[in-house]
Design brief:
Helix 3 (about 115-120) crosses helix 9 and helix 4 packs parallel to helix 5 (about 185-200). The protein has 9 helices and 12 strands. Helix content is about 40%, strand content about 15%. Strand 4, helix 5 (about 185-200) and strand 5 (about 210) form a beta-alpha-beta unit. The longest helix has about 50 residues, at about 45-95. It folds into 2 domains: about 20-95; about 100-375, Peroxisomal Thiolase, Chain A, domain 1 (3-Layer(aba) Sandwich). The protein starts with 17 loop residues before the first helix and ends in a 5-residue tail after the last strand. It is elongated, with a radius of gyration of 33 Å. The strands form 2 sheets. Strands 1, 4, 5, 6, 7, 8, 9, 10, 11 and 12 form a 10-stranded mixed sheet that branches. A two-stranded antiparallel sheet has the order 2-3. With about 375 residues, it is of the alpha+beta class. It has helices at about 20-40, 45-95, 115-120, 150-170, 185-200, 215-225, 285-295, 325-330, 335-350, and strands at about 100-110, 130-135, 140, 180-185, 210, 235-240, 255-260, 265-270, 275, 305, 355-360, 365-375. About 35% of the residues are buried. Keywords: Membrane, Transmembrane, Transmembrane helix.
Length: about 375
């Protein structure tokens, strides 16, 4: 996200003080008149003295006029400066509030693979997946995958992702995405492309995708998609399977996600907001900006999230950060965490026809958060 533009304060000119200028002019006039009278030749008249006094009077009036003109011009320049600053900031905010639509979504994880299973999860009417004990530690895994090799598990996730999309999608699909983003290994991308060629032969994919970078990638997509043809699409997908570790606070998890993003769809994604602890910004300010971005006055009642490192004042944001924590459903997900949280929020927003929040780690930031809304509900 390009940060909000800031500009230095304009240094305003001080207005001329009439009394001070009048006193200074009178003093100069008296001094020059007195000096001219003292230096006057005894036989000369007072004509030269009068000329000096007249010259000083005209000069003082001219200097006063120039000072007033300078002040008026400086005031005008200040008004133009503030107008330009306001216009640039309004343009930035209008761009920052742009959104795109989620046309289709597929989610694979230890808690399920189908839309019916995800509806039960978002309604908290599901059974949490069992923790598997592996040689390295605890893990949450897909039930129908038994290999312990992480590379093979990611390949299996990539293939399962395409097969589930084929099952969810009705009819043929013939598109050429403007760009494909991928979160995962090159080996899993190759498996994904191979299965796509079998399941969706009319979808053209590039040999090498763009690496998914979270909020930065979403910003790129929104910037390009809002100026593209109505039938344009972006494909974002990824899979991740982490090795079990006794050092990890959570069980090792795994997941696969797929988004087909366009200009119309079921729900709308915004750019979201990011937070990095610093003295200059608080999480409360960032959370409020996310509400403003989605034209909401109150935080959504439901937010899907993963537990985060201690962030002061997170509970002061007013967001629901306790009821839909997903740690026990997914385990540790690393860089794909935010995609999973956004997908769950999208399923909730579509199913309940109401906004839903999400909070998760971003590949480049301590925390990312945003709101998913049903398509067409506001800008």
């Amino acid at each position: 996200m390009r940060p909000q533009p800031t500009f230095p304060a304009y240094r305003h000119a001080r207005p001329p003080t009439g009394k001070r200028w009048l006193a200074a002019g009178a003093t100069v006039l008296l001094l020059t008149g007195g000096i001219a009278a003292l230096l006057r030749h005894p036989e000369a008249g007072y004509g030269q003295v009068v000329m000096v006094i007249g010259f000083i009077t005209v000069l003082s009036a001219l200097v006063w006029g120039l000072r007033v003109l300078f002040y008026r011009m400086a005031t005008h320049n200040a008004q133009l400066y503030h107008h330009e600053v306001k216009q640039v900031q309004q343009q930035w905010w209008a761009r920052h509030c742009q959104h795109i639509a989620l046309t289709e979504a597929v989610l694979i994880g230890p808690a399920g693979t189908t839309l019916t299973q995800w509806q039960r999860l978002i309604n908290r009417d599901h059974r949490q997946p069992d923790v598997r004990i592996e040689s390295g530690g605890k893990a949450l895994r897909l039930l129908h995958s038994f290999t312990v090799d992480i590379t093979e598990r990611e390949k299996h996730l990539a293939k399962t992702l395409v097969l589930q999309w084929r099952e969810q999608h009705q009819g043929p699909l013939a598109i050429t995405p403007l760009r494909c983003y991928w979160s995962g290994s090159a080996a899993s991308w190759l498996v994904f492309c191979t299965q796509m060629a079998l399941s969706f032969p009319d979808v053209v994919l590039p040999a090498h995708p763009v690496v998914w970078r979270g909020e930065e990638s979403m910003t790129e997509i929104i910037d390009e998609l809002t100026h593209s043809a109505p039938e344009s699409f972006f494909l974002c997908a990824g899979c991740c399977s982490l090795p079990a570790s006794h050092e990890s606070r959570l069980p090792a998890g795994e997941a696969a996600v797929l988004w087909l993003l366009g200009q119309t769809g079921k729900v709308q994604f915004s750019r979201g907001e990011v937070f990095n602890p610093s003295p200059d910004e608080s999480i409360v300010t960032v959370a409020q900006r996310a509400l403003d971005q989605s034209e909401l006055t109150q935080p959504p009642d439901t937010s899907f999230l993963f537990s985060q490192p201690p962030i002061p004042d997170l509970n002061e944001t007013g967001w629901n950060v306790t009821q839909h924590v997903q740690d026990l459903n997914w385990g540790e997900l690393a860089e794909i965490e935010s995609m999973v949280a956004q997908t769950l929020a999208a399923f909730f927003a579509e199913h309940h026809a109401m906004p839903c929040g999400w909070l998760a780690r971003d590949p480049n930031h301590t925390l990312a958060l945003g709101i998913v809304k049903p398509y067409g509900s506001g800008k």
